[in-house]
Design goal:
With 208 residues, the protein is an alpha+beta fold. It has six helices and eight strands; from the N terminus they run αααββααββββαββ. Strands 6-5-4-3-2-1-7-8 form an eight-stranded antiparallel sheet. A hairpin with a 5-residue loop joins strand 5 and strand 6. Helix 1 crosses helix 6. The protein is globular.
Amino acid sequence: MPTEVKEMQKKYLTHVLEMLGAPLRRHQAPEAWHKLESELGAGLPPDYKEIVDAYAPVKINGHLYLSHPAIEPWNLGEWIHSTAEAWSQIEWDEDEPEGDPRVSLGVPELLFGTPDGLIPIASTDRGETIFYAPQGALGAGALFIENGEGEFFEYSFSFVEWLYRWLIGEEVTGPGGGAFYPGPVALMDLPMSPEDPQETRYGPPRGM
């Protein structure tokens, strides 16, 4: 990876960590990531894994869900496999979907959960799904966002740049998809059992 790209990712990672506040890092487990990536046949973005290890399982600003590969419930691997399976059942018409990822990826068939297709990595309660395409951006990796209405939008951002832009309200889930909430970022730690309270905590003041 070019040095300038690494520096850019580091900058956005710093910005995101500043907005989200002190990481809890409750479930760090390198072996869980290794197992998941071996199953997928592809590595997941390091900055994405950094955010997941720092905060997941969590719901950010009332919409964005992040799961973790080392825990039950909210297991990331199970969610990726079940989500990929569900998307794989869709039969696309000839002119579907809008923003067809096959064109950018140069593949004849739209695959999910595979190195040469789209790997789901996050979702929102608004129906949006965030996919990572290892072969996107000429093999450098890209994000494809499905907006819940059958339209795909490609972004060459790193995950942390995408998350930063999402947090400040930019339309990075397609036109009209911005969701800006002024003030500190809200983080709800997802319950590990039915008895756990669903409490929301907040990041530091943002001046926004």
